[in-house]
Amino acid sequence: MTRLTNGQRYTCTTAATNASGTSRESAKSSAVTIGELRRSGAPFGALISQLRARSRQCVRVRFSEPTDVEPTSDERELLLRYLRLQREMVVASTVGLTEDQARWRPDDRLIPVIGIVNHLTHVEARWIDGAYARRPIARRSEVEFVVAGDRTLAEVVDEYAVRAETTERTVRAAPGLGAPCVGPPGLGRSEAGLSGLDLRWVLLHLIEETAHHAGHAESTREMLDGHRSGW
Protein backbone atom coordinates (compact mmCIF):
# COMPACT_ATOMS: atom_id res chain seq x y z
CA MET A 1 0.00 0.00 0.00
CA THR A 2 1.12 3.56 -0.76
CA ARG A 3 0.46 6.84 0.98
CA LEU A 4 -1.63 9.36 -0.90
CA THR A 5 0.54 12.24 -2.05
CA ASN A 6 -0.02 15.21 -4.28
CA GLY A 7 1.40 13.39 -7.30
CA GLN A 8 0.07 9.91 -6.53
CA ARG A 9 -1.95 8.44 -9.38
CA TYR A 10 -5.09 6.45 -9.00
CA THR A 11 -5.16 2.91 -10.36
CA CYS A 12 -8.25 2.35 -12.46
CA THR A 13 -9.55 -1.17 -12.97
CA THR A 14 -11.71 -2.96 -15.48
CA ALA A 15 -13.47 -6.15 -14.49
CA ALA A 16 -13.09 -9.36 -16.45
CA THR A 17 -14.23 -12.94 -15.91
CA ASN A 18 -12.06 -15.99 -16.42
CA ALA A 19 -13.14 -19.40 -17.64
CA SER A 20 -14.15 -20.56 -14.17
CA GLY A 21 -16.47 -17.57 -13.80
CA THR A 22 -14.32 -15.90 -11.18
CA SER A 23 -14.12 -12.16 -11.46
CA ARG A 24 -10.65 -10.64 -11.78
CA GLU A 25 -9.39 -7.13 -12.35
CA SER A 26 -6.84 -5.86 -14.81
CA ALA A 27 -5.33 -2.56 -13.78
CA LYS A 28 -4.18 0.38 -15.84
CA SER A 29 -2.75 3.67 -14.70
CA SER A 30 -5.11 6.62 -14.59
CA ALA A 31 -4.03 10.04 -15.81
CA VAL A 32 -5.76 11.67 -12.86
CA THR A 33 -3.73 12.77 -9.82
CA ILE A 34 -4.72 14.52 -6.62
CA GLY A 35 -2.44 17.41 -7.54
CA GLU A 36 -4.00 17.79 -10.98
CA LEU A 37 -7.48 17.93 -9.47
CA ARG A 38 -6.37 20.47 -6.86
CA ARG A 39 -4.65 22.66 -9.45
CA SER A 40 -7.97 22.89 -11.27
CA GLY A 41 -8.90 25.47 -8.63
CA ALA A 42 -11.91 23.51 -7.39
CA PRO A 43 -12.83 24.01 -3.71
CA PHE A 44 -12.43 21.10 -1.30
CA GLY A 45 -16.06 19.97 -1.62
CA ALA A 46 -15.88 19.97 -5.41
CA LEU A 47 -12.62 18.03 -5.26
CA ILE A 48 -14.27 15.34 -3.18
CA SER A 49 -17.18 15.24 -5.62
CA GLN A 50 -14.75 14.63 -8.46
CA LEU A 51 -13.10 11.83 -6.51
CA ARG A 52 -16.48 10.26 -5.80
CA ALA A 53 -17.38 10.41 -9.48
CA ARG A 54 -14.38 8.20 -10.19
CA SER A 55 -14.90 5.86 -7.24
CA ARG A 56 -16.70 3.19 -9.25
CA GLN A 57 -13.86 2.92 -11.73
CA CYS A 58 -10.81 3.49 -9.50
CA VAL A 59 -9.21 1.59 -6.67
CA ARG A 60 -8.26 4.48 -4.44
CA VAL A 61 -4.83 4.75 -2.90
CA ARG A 62 -4.93 3.75 0.76
CA PHE A 63 -2.94 4.63 3.81
CA SER A 64 0.11 2.51 4.51
CA GLU A 65 0.06 -0.22 7.13
CA PRO A 66 1.28 1.11 10.50
CA THR A 67 5.05 0.90 10.93
CA ASP A 68 7.50 2.29 13.46
CA VAL A 69 8.26 5.98 13.06
CA GLU A 70 11.63 6.62 11.46
CA PRO A 71 13.76 8.91 13.65
CA THR A 72 14.74 12.36 12.40
CA SER A 73 16.36 15.42 13.95
CA ASP A 74 13.74 17.59 12.18
CA GLU A 75 11.15 18.19 14.89
CA ARG A 76 8.43 19.27 12.46
CA GLU A 77 8.89 16.15 10.34
CA LEU A 78 9.00 13.94 13.43
CA LEU A 79 5.66 15.28 14.66
CA LEU A 80 4.12 14.78 11.21
CA ARG A 81 5.41 11.21 11.12
CA TYR A 82 3.87 10.43 14.49
CA LEU A 83 0.57 11.95 13.37
CA ARG A 84 0.71 9.89 10.19
CA LEU A 85 1.26 6.71 12.22
CA GLN A 86 -1.80 7.41 14.34
CA ARG A 87 -3.88 8.01 11.21
CA GLU A 88 -2.66 4.69 9.79
CA MET A 89 -3.69 2.93 12.99
CA VAL A 90 -7.18 4.43 12.75
CA VAL A 91 -7.55 3.39 9.11
CA ALA A 92 -6.20 -0.11 9.87
CA SER A 93 -9.40 -0.72 11.84
CA THR A 94 -11.48 -0.09 8.72
CA VAL A 95 -9.84 -2.76 6.55
CA GLY A 96 -12.24 -5.44 5.38
CA LEU A 97 -15.38 -3.89 6.89
CA THR A 98 -18.71 -3.92 5.11
CA GLU A 99 -20.81 -0.77 5.08
CA ASP A 100 -23.03 -2.15 7.85
CA GLN A 101 -20.03 -3.18 9.96
CA ALA A 102 -18.46 0.26 9.54
CA ARG A 103 -21.58 1.72 11.15
CA TRP A 104 -21.88 -0.85 13.94
CA ARG A 105 -21.73 0.23 17.57
CA PRO A 106 -21.68 -2.09 20.62
CA ASP A 107 -25.17 -1.86 22.12
CA ASP A 108 -25.52 1.39 20.16
CA ARG A 109 -22.86 3.01 22.34
CA LEU A 110 -19.56 4.63 21.44
CA ILE A 111 -18.89 5.86 17.90
CA PRO A 112 -18.88 3.62 14.81
CA VAL A 113 -15.56 3.24 13.01
CA ILE A 114 -16.75 5.25 9.99
CA GLY A 115 -17.81 8.06 12.35
CA ILE A 116 -14.36 8.13 13.94
CA VAL A 117 -12.66 8.61 10.56
CA ASN A 118 -15.13 11.31 9.55
CA HIS A 119 -14.72 13.10 12.89
CA LEU A 120 -10.92 13.12 12.64
CA THR A 121 -11.12 14.65 9.17
CA HIS A 122 -13.06 17.55 10.69
CA VAL A 123 -10.70 17.77 13.68
CA GLU A 124 -7.68 18.33 11.43
CA ALA A 125 -9.57 20.92 9.39
CA ARG A 126 -10.58 22.85 12.52
CA TRP A 127 -7.07 23.01 13.92
CA ILE A 128 -5.04 23.45 10.74
CA ASP A 129 -7.39 25.48 8.54
CA GLY A 130 -9.10 27.22 11.46
CA ALA A 131 -6.65 27.61 14.33
CA TYR A 132 -3.50 28.02 12.25
CA ALA A 133 -4.59 29.37 8.85
CA ARG A 134 -7.45 31.48 10.32
CA ARG A 135 -9.91 30.36 7.66
CA PRO A 136 -13.67 30.23 8.40
CA ILE A 137 -14.45 26.73 9.62
CA ALA A 138 -17.56 24.95 10.86
CA ARG A 139 -18.01 24.51 14.58
CA ARG A 140 -17.67 21.07 16.13
CA SER A 141 -20.93 19.18 15.85
CA GLU A 142 -22.17 15.75 16.88
CA VAL A 143 -23.37 15.39 13.28
CA GLU A 144 -19.83 14.62 12.13
CA PHE A 145 -19.92 11.36 14.11
CA VAL A 146 -22.92 10.15 12.08
CA VAL A 147 -22.19 9.44 8.42
CA ALA A 148 -25.07 9.54 5.95
CA GLY A 149 -25.99 6.27 4.30
CA ASP A 150 -25.17 7.55 0.82
CA ARG A 151 -21.48 7.96 1.76
CA THR A 152 -19.39 4.81 1.63
CA LEU A 153 -16.57 3.86 3.96
CA ALA A 154 -14.13 4.11 1.05
CA GLU A 155 -15.23 7.67 0.36
CA VAL A 156 -14.84 8.68 4.00
CA VAL A 157 -11.33 7.18 4.15
CA ASP A 158 -10.46 8.96 0.89
CA GLU A 159 -11.57 12.28 2.32
CA TYR A 160 -9.39 11.61 5.36
CA ALA A 161 -6.44 10.94 3.02
CA VAL A 162 -7.01 14.22 1.17
CA ARG A 163 -7.27 16.04 4.51
CA ALA A 164 -4.04 14.42 5.72
CA GLU A 165 -2.16 15.58 2.62
CA THR A 166 -3.50 19.11 3.10
CA THR A 167 -2.45 19.12 6.75
CA GLU A 168 1.09 17.93 5.98
CA ARG A 169 1.53 20.39 3.11
CA THR A 170 0.30 23.30 5.24
CA VAL A 171 2.53 22.42 8.19
CA ARG A 172 5.61 22.04 6.01
CA ALA A 173 4.93 25.45 4.47
CA ALA A 174 4.60 27.14 7.88
CA PRO A 175 7.43 29.47 8.97
CA GLY A 176 8.06 27.30 12.02
CA LEU A 177 6.49 25.29 14.83
CA GLY A 178 6.25 28.48 16.86
CA ALA A 179 3.75 29.96 14.40
CA PRO A 180 0.86 31.38 16.47
CA CYS A 181 -2.55 29.73 16.41
CA VAL A 182 -5.94 30.73 17.75
CA GLY A 183 -8.59 28.49 19.23
CA PRO A 184 -10.95 27.21 16.52
CA PRO A 185 -14.73 27.46 16.95
CA GLY A 186 -16.46 24.75 18.94
CA LEU A 187 -13.53 23.90 21.21
CA GLY A 188 -14.00 21.04 23.60
CA ARG A 189 -14.14 21.83 27.30
CA SER A 190 -10.52 20.70 27.82
CA GLU A 191 -9.26 23.36 25.37
CA ALA A 192 -11.49 26.21 26.56
CA GLY A 193 -9.68 29.30 27.74
CA LEU A 194 -6.30 28.34 26.30
CA SER A 195 -4.01 31.12 25.12
CA GLY A 196 -0.57 31.25 23.58
CA LEU A 197 -1.24 28.37 21.21
CA ASP A 198 1.29 27.64 18.48
CA LEU A 199 1.63 25.10 15.68
CA ARG A 200 3.73 22.76 17.84
CA TRP A 201 0.92 22.58 20.41
CA VAL A 202 -1.63 21.98 17.66
CA LEU A 203 0.35 19.08 16.17
CA LEU A 204 0.83 17.48 19.56
CA HIS A 205 -2.89 17.87 20.22
CA LEU A 206 -3.73 16.24 16.88
CA ILE A 207 -1.43 13.31 17.72
CA GLU A 208 -3.14 12.98 21.11
CA GLU A 209 -6.64 13.20 19.64
CA THR A 210 -5.92 10.77 16.79
CA ALA A 211 -4.23 8.27 19.12
CA HIS A 212 -7.25 8.41 21.44
CA HIS A 213 -9.59 7.56 18.58
CA ALA A 214 -7.21 4.95 17.16
CA GLY A 215 -7.63 2.98 20.38
CA HIS A 216 -11.36 3.62 20.30
CA ALA A 217 -11.61 2.32 16.71
CA GLU A 218 -9.53 -0.76 17.48
CA SER A 219 -11.68 -1.61 20.50
CA THR A 220 -14.87 -1.28 18.49
CA ARG A 221 -13.41 -3.44 15.71
CA GLU A 222 -12.29 -6.14 18.18
CA MET A 223 -15.75 -6.26 19.74
CA LEU A 224 -17.24 -6.52 16.26
CA ASP A 225 -15.27 -9.42 14.79
CA GLY A 226 -12.20 -10.07 16.94
CA HIS A 227 -9.82 -8.31 14.54
CA ARG A 228 -6.76 -6.74 16.17
CA SER A 229 -4.10 -4.58 14.55
CA GLY A 230 -1.24 -6.42 16.21
CA TRP A 231 0.18 -3.21 17.68
Name the features.
three-stranded antiparallel sheet, 7 helices, 231 residues, disordered N terminus, mainly alpha
Strands, helices and their partners?
Layout: E1 9-17, E2 23-33, H1 34-39, H2 44-53, E3 58-59, H3 75-92, H4 99-102, H5 113-132, H6 153-173, H7 199-225
Antiparallel strand pairs: 1-2, 1-3
Helix pairs in contact: 3-6, 3-7, 5-6, 5-7
Strand sequence of the main sheet, in spatial order? 2-1-3
Rg (CA only):
18 Å
- Total number of strands: 3
Helix/strand-derived category reads: mainly alpha
Which consecutive residue ranges, at least 5 long each, have pLDDT under 50?
Answer: 1-39, 54-61
Q: How widely separated are the two ends?
A: 18 Å
Helix-strand topology string: EEHHEHHHHH
Mean pLDDT across every amino acid position: 77
Q: What's the helical proportion of residues?
A: 40-55%
Q: Assess the beta-strand content as a share of residues.
A: 5-15%
Cα shape: globular
Largest sheet: 3 strands, antiparallel
